[in-house]
Design brief:
The protein has three helices and six strands. Strands 1, 2, 3, 4, 5 and 6 form a six-stranded antiparallel β-sheet that branches. The radius of gyration is 16 Å and the shape is globular. Belongs to the CREG family.
Length: 135
């Protein structure tokens, strides 16, 4: 009934082990998830990360979803992690989210990552600034 429509979801992500963040988001996914099915057909995606731990919002007791709290939006292509990066993806995901090791193997889990093409930072009402991917 929703075929062809974007399907949002919350997915666990990691950009590397705690002592080796890369800025590249890695995901541990299953083809049984509608989001993943969509991404395998059309890999264009966006990811928004809220400033949940920023000083301004915490200090002023402001909801992290309030526009005054910064948020970063990444857009790009979601791709299956190539074999030469699988070990790094495992370390990245399992070090930050150890519970995924216990997820049922019958779900055929695999790793995807986002090849970031654009970055936008929203730091106040309606103000959006582009950020160079290299940064």
């Amino acid at each position: 009934q929703i075929q062809g429509m974007p399907y949002g979801n919350c997915l666990l992500l990691s950009d590397g082990p705690i002592n080796n963040s890369t800025g590249i988001p890695f995901f541990y996914v299953t083809p049984k998830d509608n989001t993943v099915t969509d991404l395998l057909k059309n890999p264009l995606a966006s990811l928004t990360l809220p400033e949940a731990d920023g000083n301004f919002c915490r200090k002023n007791v402001i909801d992290p979803e309030d526009p005054r709290c910064a948020r970063l939006t990444l857009t790009g292509q979601m791709v299956t992690v190539p074999p030469e990066e699988i070990e790094f993806a495992k370390q990245a995901m399992f070090s930050r989210h150890p519970v995924v090791r216990k997820w049922p193997r019958s779900y055929e889990w695999f790793f995807m990552k986002m090849n970031i093409e654009h970055i936008w930072l929203q730091s106040w009402y309606g103000e959006v600034s582009p950020v160079a991917v290299e940064e």
